[in-house]
Description:
Blueprint: H1 2-37, H2 43-50, H3 52-64, H4 80-101, H5 111-139, H6 144-162, H7 172-196, H8 200-214
Helix pairs in contact: 1-3, 1-5, 3-5, 4-8, 5-6, 5-8, 6-7, 7-8
Amino acid sequence: MKKNKFLWSVFYIFWACLLSIGVNYANNPVRFALAERFPDVHIFVYDIFSDAVWLFVALIVAVWSPRFFGYQIGDIFKHKKMLVVLTAIFLLIPIFYRFIAGDTPFSTNTWFFEGVVVPIAEEGFFRGIIYAMMLKGFSEIYSQRNAELIAIIISALSFAILHLANIGSYPTQFVIFQVLYSIIFGLLFGYSRMKTKSIYPSIIFHAILNLAATL
């Protein structure tokens, strides 16, 4: 029995890691191929092309097993105060940053990309797929509490590392700063996912954060 649990744990953890690497690797070639094939599309369609693989993978699992990957109301209404506090944090921090440093490199991006495409794609992947699969894997060999903490940390680190792909598109110093704050925000996104058992708060928080940094 213990051997079976360990094998299932390895299975879930392995696939989570493989997906994280594979999707990140595959997205840019698909993005450029779509942009070349359809050069005159609306800007919002191009925004979707930019995260096409992330969106496809995140949404296909949402259809396949919505509850497992967090697409449910869960315990959202049990944690209203916590969610209000987190909303204020994700709104005020980027506003404060812009007050001190001025515009961010994201200012040229559309509200649709930053407020809709990115939150759905990234949260669907990291707080949906990676969190759920890591939680399932580690809960086979650790207590539920420890498995939740590990899943939060790994999903946050994976989320932060993703932003290294922005080197070359944005100033390197800003990208390094982005990776560092993504760890903190990723932990908060994961915490909301754990407490509410729902992915919807983290999607909304991510949208608030991005829009406050963009508009």
